[in-house]
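check this:
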Amino acid sequence: MLSRTIRKSIFGTRIPISALPPTFLLPIRSRYFNATTQHVESPTGDSEISETPTDSLVTSSTINATSKIPSSIPSKPAPNTAPMALDSSIQEMLPLLAAQTSHFITAHIHARPYLVTAGDIVRLPFHMPGVIPGDILRLNRASALGSRDYTLKGAPYLDERLFECRATVMGTEAEPLRIKKKTKQRNRKVKTVKSKHKFTILRIAEVKVNSLDEIEGW
């Protein structure tokens, strides 16, 4: 009985439709009615005629501006096939330098200078790959070339047409085995490092100063 009376009281107290607010005042409806749409009219024929030349001017100016912008990629220089002309002082003093014997040269191998003469043995501080005993190497980079009375210096290197320096590969030489023990503080682990480097041995076979005729026929 009690449940029936509660149901009747709930369904009996209905809100009349006239007391409810109109539907256009609800949040979704009000947002729909308050929203405004913008209508843009298309330009007339006169405006199209007046705007057309300005557009063409803008496009032409932009094309000209882009054509004047230099490319960031530099162009490859043309190879210089003509040999470099020797200085007059070199042409004058080179025969005097070639006339003397026992020339010396400061040859550069991997940016390391070596002051040598014919017959010297050079122990390179590295192992040169790709060579075997008996190979003949031409050392074409030098910073100084001279004799007892004359010295020719480069800035920083000499022209390779002025001289000929050849070296013969004698072989490789290995140092004694070195053992080094590495450890850290408060650590009982000891790391043992072994090293045994190899070095290439060269013998300077020839140091020659070229004549002017040989340089011209290079």
User: Anything to note?
Assistant: The beta strands are 104-109, 112-117, 121-123, 136-138, 142-146, 151-153, 163-174, 178-183, 190-195, 198-209.
